[in-house]
Amino acid sequence: MTTQLDELIDLARLQAGQPLEIRREPTDLVALASELAAEPGERDVRHRIQVESLVAELVGQWDGARLSRVLDNLISNAVKYSPNGDEVYVRLSRDEGYAVLQVEDHGLGIPADDLPRIFDRFHRAANVTGRIDGIGLGLAGARQIVNAHGGSIAIQSQEGVGTTVTDHDVMGGKPVIKGTHIPVDLVLTKLSVHHSIGDLLSDYPDLTIDQIKDCLRYASTLAQMKKRRRNIIPW
């Protein structure tokens, strides 16, 4: 219910012409996909979520909570519209400056006539209306979030064969300290050499203690994400 309420709030912003307030932080899509795939959710034993990644991690400056909602929606749709059970594949890779996320199922598929409107609010495909519960907000919200990150999302589907959703998210350049053009990793490297905030400030006299603390929190977040990675199947 909370996730659906968040979707409605974001969609209301879109309707009012208000941009989403994206809260960017280091987010690993590989870890995120693995965690969501491991959650039981509403799926049953007939569905198996298979995470396949070409890379050990895909870390970018994204709004982790909202991208989690996007991926959760795509996985939930793949399960819901595969009523006979089957494997759902979540594939991750990197293509130059983009993180590429694909969710593939072999379920009901989408009729060709519905594909042009599949991202419209409240639109549902003809072959599931009245047959499978839903209100048609998930994909509209997913596209809104992906677009707000500067990415794109697309669907390939054939009725009776299955559906593949592909999401391209901009990785972004190296994160910089807020309010400056100084790369975070450069400051962390300097700090590891100097072992003293005082010495670091002699190199960067305009830095504040709060900005240095932000760097350390960033490094801590990356370290925690690496510890959480698990159950990744290379392909």
Characterization of this structure:
- With 235 residues, this protein is α/β, with parallel strands linked by helices.
- It is elongated and about 65 Å long.
- The model is unreliable at 229-235 (pLDDT under 50).
- It is 38% helix and 22% strand.
- 28% of the residues are buried.
- It folds into two domains: 2-173, Heat Shock Protein 90 (2-Layer Sandwich), CATH 3.30.565.10; 184-228, no CATH class.
- A hairpin with a 3-residue loop joins strand 6 and strand 7.
- The protein has seven helices and eight strands; from the N terminus they run αβαββαββαββαααβ.
- It has helices at 2-15, 29-38, 64-80, 138-148, 184-194, 197-203, 209-228, and strands spanning 25-28, 47-53, 59-62, 86-95, 98-105, 152-158, 162-170, 233-234.
- The strands form two sheets. The protein has a six-stranded mixed sheet with strand order 6-7-5-4-2-8, with helices on one face. Strands 1-3 form a two-stranded antiparallel ribbon.
Notable features of this structure?
disordered C terminus; 235 residues; Heat Shock Protein 90; 38% helix; 6-stranded mixed beta sheet; 2 domains; two-stranded antiparallel ribbon; alpha/beta
In short:
With 235 residues, the protein is of the alpha/beta class. The chain folds into 2 domains: 2-173, Histidine kinase-like ATPase, C-terminal domain (Heat Shock Protein 90, 2-Layer Sandwich), CATH 3.30.565; 184-228, no CATH class.
Low-confidence stretches: 229-235
* Structure annotation, total helices: 7
C-alpha end-to-end distance: 35 Å
Q: Which term fits the overall shape?
A: elongated
Main sheet attributes: strand count, strand direction, barrel closure: 6 strands, mixed
Strand order of the largest sheet: 6-7-5-4-2-8
- What is the average of the pLDDT values? 81
SSE order, one letter for each helix or strand: HEHEEHEEHEEHHHE
